[in-house]
Amino acid sequence: MATGEAERGAAGAPGAEVPQPGSVVQLMFGAMAARTVYTAVELGIADLIGEGESTPEAVAEGCEAEPRSVHRLLRALTALGLLQERRQGVFALTATGALLGTSRPDSLAAFVRMFADPVMLRAWDHLGDSVRSGAPSFDAVFGTDFFSHLKQHPALSAQFNASMSQGSRLAAAVLPGAYDFGRFRTVVDVGGGDGTLLAAILREHPGLRGVVYDTEEGLAQAAGTFARAGVADRASCVAGDFFASVPEGGDLYLLKSVVHDWNDEQCTRILGHCRAVLPPEGRLLLVEPTLPAVVPPGAPPLMYLSDLNMLVNLGGRERTEEDFTALCRAAGFQAPVFSSLPPPQAFRLIEAAPAD
User: Fold this and answer.
1) What is the pTM of this model?
2) Which of 88, 138, 260, 286 has the fewest CB atoms nearer than 10 Å to its CB?
3) Residue 340 and residue 349 in contact, taking contact as beta carbons nearer than 8 Å
4) Could you tell me how far CA 168 lies from the centroid of its own chain?
5) Contacts of 253 (CB under 8 A, 6+ apart)
6) Do residues 348 and 336 lie in contact, with contact meaning Cβ atoms separated by under 8 Å?
7) Catalytic residue at 260?
8) Cα(288)–Cα(104) distance, rounded to whole angstroms?
9) Active-site residue (options: 126, 149, 153, 260)
10) What pLDDT, in 10s, does the model give residues 182-221?
């Protein structure tokens, strides 16, 4: 049998994988879909439609845009599952689309703004460079690292803090009841930003005290978060650099979505500072997704795209259980114990005790 005939025979064999060109085309339109959602937030589409229904003409008047173009935008948002066209030319939000409204406590509008911001996306134009070099492209594009850039741009820093807060709310809703915080006296949330997660933990555990530790820029909204949660009397804000030290006095050191921002050497330094001040009975708790050792069929792409985002923008990475175990041991901890938050959360709880 000729080579071409063999290939055709294999492709036609029962159970053989069939090429899906439509899937490739859909993937290539992914950036356009993200920009469509960003534009909906930028124009305030969800706020303009509200809980009722609206027409393109009314929405266009509210955002000072051209009605026919707004109609086209609304149709695209409908196809993306964020709106529904109840009858011709009359649109309403779906439950998912309502998350783009700015007044909801579970809003994701700031998250959308940040992750579709040109600052987040420009380094992605140089993904190939990062793959070749293993280094973040952000530094070359902007002349400084990501967090130094935020420090130089207060408005962008505030937007980043808001997006991180929105991204933490789902975990904050389940983590306080999914881990035994009650056995500790003081939790130090290292890199805890505006205190969203710590406030939820303290609210659920009234006998616990807490410290949120971050840069001055990262802490800018934390005091307000604690006041609104009614836990300001048990929470404090400490500014500093976790590459230099972490505050003493905690018996639980919590890091959520921090480790993936940094390379192994940087992570070992951060975790080593936690180990240096942790009492023998204390614990380290990391809250991060973990990658499987082998990519399973049908794996959700989100964590792998996040891994590439860490590569191009920050120089960090998503890690496997084996990677986390190596990090903990290098920083003076025992092999960690892994558990999972309830679905649909993808985060894992990674608890490590000090090594002898």
Assistant:
1) 0.88
2) 88
3) yes
4) 7
5) 187, 188, 190, 246, 274, 277, 278, 282, 283, 284, 285
6) no
7) yes
8) 26
9) 260
10) 999 999 999 999 999 999 999 999 999 999 999 999 999 9
